[in-house]
Design brief:
442 residues, alpha/beta, binds FE3-S4 cluster, binds S-adenosylmethionine, 6-stranded parallel beta sheet, globular
Amino acid sequence: MTKLYIKTYGCQMNEYDSDKMADVLRACEGMEQTDKPEDADIILFNTCSIREKAEDKVFSDLGRVRALKQSNPNLLIGVGGCVASQEGDIIVKRAPYVDVVFGPQTLHRLPQLIAARRASGEPQVDISFPEIEKFDHVPTAQATHGAAFVSIMEGCSKYCTFCVVPYTRGEEVSRPYADVMREVENLTGQGVGEITLLGQNVNAYQGETEDGDTVDFAFLVKAVAALPGVQRLRYTTSHPREMSQRLIDLYETTPKLAGHLHLPVQSGSDRILAAMKRGYTALEYKSIVRKLRAARPDISISSDFIIGFPGETEADFEATMKLVDEVGFDASFSFIFSPRPGTPAAEMADDTPYETKLARLHRLQARIAEMEHQVGAAMSGSVQRVLVESVSRKNAQELAGRTQNNRVVNFAGSPGMLGRYVDVRILPGTLHTLRGELVMQP
Ligand code: SAM
Ligand code: F3S
């Protein structure tokens, strides 16, 4: 059996795509995955270009595997993902030992690209955007341990001025409604109870039905939650501009919808939000959160922040801190602005010193960490229903599960519980990752 090694950079979309690459190569070439690059017959890098650092890592990692080609001349090296999509042929020029270059929308063509590389001896590059074709050519997902992602749309058409995604992944394309429902039913048939609907902007979903109508994201969420095999439902990522009242209302009427929402805000300053082209004001964002809390009082909200966007003043940053205090976030991601070639923000004048940006980032992160700890402390003593997803990363005697508000809990238990829902009491004194103890099942 030939072996495949995949290294994944970046977001959950990339994690999902890496699984699909493995599925495609397992189905067509009978390949098995390995975690040792030196054992592999094919090495794939699934790259990310959202920030400069992620992009730089790829070329240094590529340099490292180059040496493996000397001991194994049949080894093939492939580069996929967003760096591949943006750079295309340039990758082969810079690293001529790379055999195939493919984008997020052409990963299903890997077997053909590999065959063409073997037949011609020439590197193959395919970074086109053949719409939704990918979904029709990837084998059905195999579920492990009770939770699964289902991709419902690809790409993004928002064109925030700082972001490369619309250029690397293409514009928003939704997967047909019946296909999504079929995949969810297939997964629940394999015993999966927890589904995460996945996309760059899931709430922009516009799925075509078999009779030619279009349904929106709220309709899809309601339909998936109504399937008897689905016990808990999540989605990521959503855009504030598309939080419709119908979607918000589902937090009141649909208990299966998990009480956690990742809703990227980026900044609390209206001036910066406009320069980012986000399409909402701080007040509008806060009003969405207020409505969400009216529908589901204990909902936990996490977010993304960009610090040091070109022209961000001290007053702009204070507006972000004020928004953080007013909203109250749990577990957020924050980054210093990274100028991405080809995006409008990369051309904007930026005179804030890096040290100032770093100090602002640290202030924001400290404040959010405090809030995160408060949420954890408030959960202490409560009994939480968690899906047992894995053996704990730190201690092989322990299991790890995810609460409905998206916190990981470690607790002692037997591997026979993997994939099942259990009740766990949260122990006091825990911070980011919670500790708990099993509660006897009735
Ligand atoms: N769809 C999401 C939304 O509604 O905003 C964003 C997806 S983006 C792939 C993930 C996060 O990366 C963004 O929310 C943003 O905070 C961060 N990001 C994107 N471009 C960036 C840049 N040029 N510099 C720093 N962070 C960036
Ligand atoms: Fe990027 Fe904005 Fe879309 S952050 S992924 S262009 S919503």
